[in-house]
Fold this sequence. Notes:
The chain has one domain: Aldolase class I (TIM Barrel). Helices cover 37% and strands 14% of the residues. It contains eleven helices and ten strands. Strands 1-2-5-6-7-8-9-10 form an eight-stranded mixed β-sheet. It is globular. The N and C termini lie far apart (42 Å).
Amino acid sequence: MQELPVIVNTLPAARAKKPDWLRVKLPIGESYRNVRSLVDTHHLHTICESGNCPNMGECWGEGTATFMILGNICTRSCGFCAVATGRPDALDWDEPQRVAEAIFLMKVKHAVITSVDRDEIKDGGSIIWNNTIRAVKTLNQNTTLETLIPDFKGQKENIQRIIEAAPEVVSHNIETVERLTRQVRIQAKYWRSMEVLKLLKVGGMRSKSGMMLGLGERKEEVIQSMKDLRNSGVDVITLGQYLQPTKKHLPVFRFVHPDEFAEYKSVGYELGFDYVESGPLVRSSYHSERHVLPGIGRTQWQEQSLAF
């Protein structure tokens, strides 16, 4: 399907003050310090830090972190992302074992792994991805695993390496609506991402995707993207507020009210998603341990609906 022309946002919120609902707690506590020590000792990268995640204090305080493999320099230059762009370092073939050992030492029941894009490599980094998943599962047999993967340029053999390693959840984010994709995800393609998600579902994976709101999308576009994701077989969807990492990144067009996020949550369950995580501070890996088992989110939503 052909990409639509880019319509650039012209009315961003001019340095608008963050609303009260976007305030977060400062990172403190023994668990936070333990995670900080493990990350530093094992020379690991986390998207929590590289992506300036607002939930880092909460998640690290609970002893969890989202590991980022394949280095911390991305070959793409997405307009929303705080991860550094440039020429990546050479692949580190010892990284899979280090990640597995760190997860073992953290004693977490659920782990999340993501990566930068490595478009300069023929396999897109999928071999190290496969090695990492297998290493984590070998050393942590009681730990469930979510992998947040790039699109691998849609190459089926690279996506198949993820499927063969069999993580419990595989996530690939579309990030925004179709109209804004070329502006927000410069080297990505909306419908290519949908095809990746379809391949994951056909391969038997529990699939997941996420979007950021506040970039200039219209409500009907958000709902259409949610429909496209369901048609691609996605089980779990996350929706959160976009926050501008630096002045060089895309500005915030508007701050989406929590009531609108609640509306999208109801729409998502009505469309048939198994789990919908929707709120201003939601990020892809936020509460990801809840996304593993089928039925939990839908059951909770139905119970809450009956209560009202």
